[in-house]
TrEMBL record:
Highest taxon above the source species: Bacteria
Single biological process term from Gene Ontology: rhamnose catabolic process
Protein name, as recorded: L-rhamnose isomerase/sugar isomerase
Lineage: Bacteria, Bacillati, Actinomycetota, Acidimicrobiia, Acidimicrobiales
Naturally occurring in which organism (per UniProt): Ilumatobacter fluminis
GO molecular function, one term: metal ion binding
Xylose isomerase-like TIM barrel domain segment(s): 71-267
Pfam families: AP_endonuc_2 (PF01261)
SUPFAM superfamilies given in the database record: Xylose isomerase-like
Keywords tagged on the record: Isomerase, Manganese, Metal-binding
């Protein structure tokens, strides 16, 4: 079914999983605790290792500081390696402390800005200790009411704070700036869209790149166009994959709109994002509030793989030919043919050939791992989204 090149790309596909997906999470109404949830970053890595062992798709784990602070990061790295994993992106956090009520890197008060900068410098230390090359910055900065603060001055302060952080990165480290159009601020956010993120990145330098979280746009936004444009400009640093019906729902990627995921993957392919040497990081940013967490992560990486596989099935020559002839319906048919192709059996065959289970979710259920963690992880405080 697949070309040799498509098989190569699928075999090499790597999706980064977030440490916080394994902890308890919920909405502002209720956090439903689940049995066997990790109590510390070591156990989060152990759970992530299950996802990789059963799918071959998830070799790295993103950490979140301070939620994943440990005394000895060298030990955590050893632990990751012993599980066949490596530490990926380090995510900063300037949204849970009281001092950040009115912002962090864009705050009017220089002391608060300095505290937020210092937190990022700590994240850079963690990057050095773990070998991580990406510092991901998502800011809750913004305002709730017109006139609340000077939006222009906030941009200037943000640019200055980001530059101070950027200067401290090593030559092989990147600053990855995520945008979000609302929440927790409701009137304006200081990095609301890809254009604002891109502008700051260009001002910072070559190693500043944009993170596109698929849940961070107004309904109806053509996200794949943004993918195209950022790849064209050489500034698509990372994805935070998830899916949404309404707002930043953080549901499993590909659950709400698999066709959108397919269209995104086509543009990634078109823009060279799957080529050797591409440094686009494909990360999940999800919370499994009601579904089981490890199977939820397995389902998610498989969804990404399935839509990637379908995108790689597009007959590029036929598509270019139809497009060149102005054959509107013909081009759309070539595109849709690939989308409607069921690749699940072919991917299961490929997994089997690689020594992986045909059905990773069934293999997880049969493995006894869930019963084991539910038995072993009693006592202590179970990690939640935020701990
Ligand atoms: C927030 O909405 C963003 O998606 C962040 O990327 C992320 O969810 C948060 O930093 C948790 O780590
Ligand atoms: Zn995100
Ligand atoms: Zn988000």
């Amino acid at each position: 079914m697949f070309s040799t090149q498509a098989i190569e790309r699928l075999d090499q596909q790597a999706i980064e999983v977030p440490s916080w997906a394994y902890g308890n999470s919920g909405t502002r109404f209720k956090v439903f605790a689940q049995a066997g949830v990790p109590r510390d970053p070591y156990e989060k890595l152990a759970d992530a290792a299950q996802v990789h062992a059963l799918t071959g798709l998830a070799p790295s784990v993103a950490l979140h500081i301070p939620w994943d602070e440990v005394d000895d990061f060298a030990r955590l790295v050893d632990h990751a390696e012993s599980l066949g994993l490596r530490i990926g992106t380090i995510n900063s956090n300037t949204f849970q402390d009281d001092i950040y009520k009115l912002g962090s890197l864009a705050h009017a008060d220089a002391d608060v800005r300095q505290a937020a900068i210092d937190h990022h410098l700590r994240c850079i230390e963690v990057m050095h200790a773990t070998g991580s090359t990406d510092l991901k910055i998502w800011l809750a900065d913004g305002t709730n009411y017109p006139g609340q603060d000077d939006m222009r001055a906030r941009q200037d302060r943000l640019a200055e704070s980001l530059a101070t952080i950027y200067e401290r990165l090593a030559d092989d480290q990147r600053l990855v700036l995520e945008y979000k159009f609302f929440e927790p601020a409701f009137y304006h956010t200081d990095v609301p869209d890809w254009g604002t993120s891109y502008t700051h990145c260009v001002e910072l330098g070559e190693r500043a790149v944009v993170c596109l979280d698929t849940g961070h746009h107004a309904p109806g936004t053509n996200i794949e166009f943004i993918v195209t444009q950022l790849l064209r400009l050489g500034r698509l640093g990372a994805f935070d994959f998830n899916s949404r019906f309404y707002a930043d729902d953080d549901l499993m990627v590909g659950a709400a709109d698999p066709f959108q995921l397919f269209r995104i993957m086509h543009e990634v392919n078109r823009g060279g994002g799957f080529e050797a040497g591409s440094d686009v990081v494909f990360m999940l940013d999800q919370c499994h509030n009601i579904e089981a967490k490890i199977p939820g992560q397995i389902r998610s990486v498989l969804n990404v793989q399935e839509m990637t596989a379908r995108a790689l099935l597009i007959d590029q020559d036929a598509l270019a030919d139809a497009q060149g002839r102005g054959d509107v319906l013909g081009a759309n048919e070539v595109f849709m043919d690939a989308f409607y192709t069921d690749v699940r059996t072919a991917l299961a065959d490929r997994r089997e050939a690689r020594g992986l289970p045909r059905d990773p979710i069934a293999a997880y259920a049969a493995s006894g791992y869930q019963a084991e963690i539910e038995r072993a992880r009693v006592g202590g405080t179970q990690a939640g989204w935020g701990a």
